[in-house]
Amino acid sequence: MNSRVEEPVRTYSYLGPAGTFTEAALAQVPEARGQNWRPVRNVGEALDDVVSGRSDAAMIAIENSVDGGVSTTQDALATMPGLRIVGEYLVPVQFVLVGKPGATLADVSVIAAHPVAYAQCLIWLGQSLPEHAHVPSSSNVTAALDMLDGVGGADAAIAPPGILEHHDLQLLADNIGDNPKAVTRFVLVSRTVAPPSPTGADKTSLIVELPDDHPGALLDMLEQFATRGINLSLLASRPIGDELGRYRFVVDADGHVFDERMADALLGLRRFSPQVVFLGSYPRADHAIVHYPSRYSDDVFVEARDWLRGLISGEPGE
Amino acid sequence: MNSRVEEPVRTYSYLGPAGTFTEAALAQVPEARGQNWRPVRNVGEALDDVVSGRSDAAMIAIENSVDGGVSTTQDALATMPGLRIVGEYLVPVQFVLVGKPGATLADVSVIAAHPVAYAQCLIWLGQSLPEHAHVPSSSNVTAALDMLDGVGGADAAIAPPGILEHHDLQLLADNIGDNPKAVTRFVLVSRTVAPPSPTGADKTSLIVELPDDHPGALLDMLEQFATRGINLSLLASRPIGDELGRYRFVVDADGHVFDERMADALLGLRRFSPQVVFLGSYPRADHAIVHYPSRYSDDVFVEARDWLRGLISGEPGE
Amino acid sequence: MNSRVEEPVRTYSYLGPAGTFTEAALAQVPEARGQNWRPVRNVGEALDDVVSGRSDAAMIAIENSVDGGVSTTQDALATMPGLRIVGEYLVPVQFVLVGKPGATLADVSVIAAHPVAYAQCLIWLGQSLPEHAHVPSSSNVTAALDMLDGVGGADAAIAPPGILEHHDLQLLADNIGDNPKAVTRFVLVSRTVAPPSPTGADKTSLIVELPDDHPGALLDMLEQFATRGINLSLLASRPIGDELGRYRFVVDADGHVFDERMADALLGLRRFSPQVVFLGSYPRADHAIVHYPSRYSDDVFVEARDWLRGLISGEPGE
Amino acid sequence: MNSRVEEPVRTYSYLGPAGTFTEAALAQVPEARGQNWRPVRNVGEALDDVVSGRSDAAMIAIENSVDGGVSTTQDALATMPGLRIVGEYLVPVQFVLVGKPGATLADVSVIAAHPVAYAQCLIWLGQSLPEHAHVPSSSNVTAALDMLDGVGGADAAIAPPGILEHHDLQLLADNIGDNPKAVTRFVLVSRTVAPPSPTGADKTSLIVELPDDHPGALLDMLEQFATRGINLSLLASRPIGDELGRYRFVVDADGHVFDERMADALLGLRRFSPQVVFLGSYPRADHAIVHYPSRYSDDVFVEARDWLRGLISGEPGE
Predict the structure, then answer these.
(1) Which residue in C has a C-alpha nearest to residue A122's C-alpha?
(2) Contacts of C238 (CB under 8 A, 6+ apart)
(3) How confident is the model at residue C17 (pLDDT cuts 50, 70, 90)?
(4) What are the tens digits of pLDDT across the range C91-104?
(5) Most C CBs within 10 Å, among D271, D297, D306, to test the C interface
(6) ipTM score of the complex?
(7) In this complex, which chains have at least 3 CB pairs below 8 Å with chain B?
(8) What class is the D198-318 domain?
(9) Which of B34, B71, D169, D286 has its CA 20 to 30 A from that of B225?
């Protein structure tokens, strides 16, 4: 008889197939090792898995240092309730150009590539293959596999370097990305849970709508942060989608909701905005300690509350 | 045997002698009727009475609509601990020119007057008595009494109209003030007590020092109010006194410390400023209801706190 | 003998082939009628045509009401010198699902679609064809043509309604877009020229970099507009691309550079920012007259300059 | 025959009689040496002399480091047109207590003093002569002379130390001022002239009214300075005088109207405010060089104008 308690297996959704940058991001999650990894075809499917309970968490790309915010991810997080970001991961983005076994660069005229990957190799392509045509693919790995299978008519594909370990492909060129420091930022998303404990190197992600379209509404929103010494590492606008000119804002702010100054800023935002979605407070991938002026430290907030309590009860107001 | 409980007599200090505008202000206080009124010679003495316990409260002038803030009052409130403003009163300021019985305007060459009163009659004096000389007095009533007694060499005095009821004086001219709508604002000051209940028509008085002398410190201070929809009815600067160019600010803000938005602004000020003196929240003399945008109402603050509590505990952040 | 002067033929580049939304935008340009229309495959090619002189102007999509800013366009305008926006055009975005002649909706399993078009039909697709797979295409028209040709393996395509006039396709479903009010905004770009005259209903497009990464830099930038009564209709961030967390901002501001307040705001921006790209002032597609507080009108600026000139020369300063 | 051209004698008004702090300020003006010095009895008379042409300039006290702004001076400058500040001077403020020849401190019960001087000796008086009474005087020298003459009933007077050189008085106590670093700031006022050349250590004095009584009007005014890197050394409010709660602001700003950033701030103020009185740009008494961020230097303004001119004419906007 075996009295050992079995840990239930956890399931993680990610943009597949094996070999994608998303898989590389998931590989950075210690808790995910040895668990069930579920490849999906797009971000919506990944988040649906989480909401429906098919998966415990999903790894999704949220921003690329060259191409910018991943708009489908930002829009999905803005509109799907019940989700929370619990971790952040960075994956360096390198690209190779691959062909079928035996191919040479001179043979290439049609290139399959995910549009984001394609956009990051434009300089190299313009110099090395000025006459090429582009066939878009749904993932960096699919581009190569379809090319191998003859689907789509491409004779080369842009792919992550790791693909060469999984498939029989001809390397035609490596390091073809325009920016050698390119990196993609991923977040791990779970169902709504309490935020993980602060580490001192945290960020807080929010989606904020502005009250109305007057010249100062965005200013007012930003002042909620500035007036508490909080730096923003990301401010992106996304159309709300009902008509041109209406936007919501995706905000990454330095610090954790358990920090007094961040909690106070969230209160200010909530009072100000018709809609604030709290996406989570979680450790930063770069582990950079958040610095802020000492007058925004927790003890200053606590002391001020004590002072206010005293003067309301009739103690001297100094 | 008499079982009646004797109410202890309360003492109120005010700038005397009888007949001053300050006495007129004190006459507006229902609780002061039939109590002990203690005339004093200056604001410092009045506030000392309160701090030392000789008086229960003091009525002091704090601002004149023509001459501006009463600087000795503002400075005393900024530096004497243990005081709190509990009420505000307005007294219309009218002046008469008086002489000895039998005198005529043509006889007047030297005029006794408190400097503030003198400053408010300059237009009339310039037109009617361009050749006069001025002898300053320590109060509006003293000016007339000294003139009657032959002290100081004046042959006329500027005085409040009520003085004619108390003393045998010749009215030489009335309504000689430059501004027929002139008014002086008084405050009733007690030892530190809990603020009176909000009435909806309240103001909050503060003394605030700025953290340092950078271009934006005052801006930052004002934003603590503006960002919570709080209007300021008074902002005056007073030298701290240690060197030129260092000021503290006297602030009257619309609303009561029991209003959520005001409490929140005070917290912001306290965190920001090296020194905030809370002088009190009390009913406005003009009984003007404080209006503010509905997004700064108490329920918005309460709702935001509930929301924050929910998302910290792991509920969906929307 | 014929003295008639021949107008030279003008060339306009646009994302082809015939039938795209971009072509519909170009059809709105009166001056382009009867001229040479040059279909190209992507935005970079279109702008290259202009810079190199192959074309006189290019029509390019810059923003979609559902999908947001067209990042390749924004990035190209930010980094390619010598371009200027001279006009703005709106095209309603409607989609149809088409198949080969004789096909039915029940036959569809693989759908070809440009990724932006695909993203705008997700609701309908999720309800009507939940099991479908997606093959990305490089344009809305190419998707249908490739499907007709059997390239890419799709058995249906998402396309603009106009395509049915040009090609023998089976209409499987119409109005499949998620938002019936969806619209795409296009701009007409020429080489650098003086701005067209103000119409009263103009906008000014800019790319602005922030001086450094302190909490208030974006606030400072926005204040350059707010403090002159200028409303922003667009504020989008785009990564500069050198490292994560560095952004430039795409700004559309209401008004024309020939308006005093806009010229003054541009001066303020230029002094503040390490890099401001002026993309142009041009008539708004919606012809909405720009309203602004009267204190920001041209005559107020002119009067203030006269006043300053007077006081520098020694005239009274009032 | 004498060909020498006679310099016309210049007349300077100052608060007399000889021995006042104002005379000490006038003694700091090199151009005033050997000219005609005209003692007057108050600030209004001094400024009237200038406006009417009786004097070329007037020296007037504008601020005391302990007592604050001299409100009569501030109000006169705000309302009398045709004046301009051309210089600033600082006089250390020390006080002595004097009596009639042969008197001792023990004899003193009534003290004559100008109210501002009296206010600066309260600590010493409270400790050394707690039982004294105060008789106000119109100047620091008049207090002593009246006491000598037996006018006003005082048996001692507070006076500047220099008075002992002019009059036969008994020194009863010296250094009786509460603040050994007390200083009074004076300005030299002429009829409106072009500002003196910048020295790099200048200040600019203004009187500004706010457009209306909304929470942000003062904020908007201060931003005109902050957004151009201009520090304020003085911000004082003065009642406009028509009703309680309406103020104008007295502003001293670091820099000269010939500095681009200051001229630009004045333009912004003028556009914003219903009333701006330019009182002058003049060298600071403390000769402190004005420091400001380099991005507000003149060349940045000039460069921005060149850039704007270029893009309006059709040059590339970068």
Answers:
(1) C44
(2) A68, C69, C71, C74, C75, C78, C247, C248, C249, C250
(3) confident
(4) 998 999 999 999 99
(5) D271
(6) 0.83
(7) A, D
(8) alpha beta
(9) B71
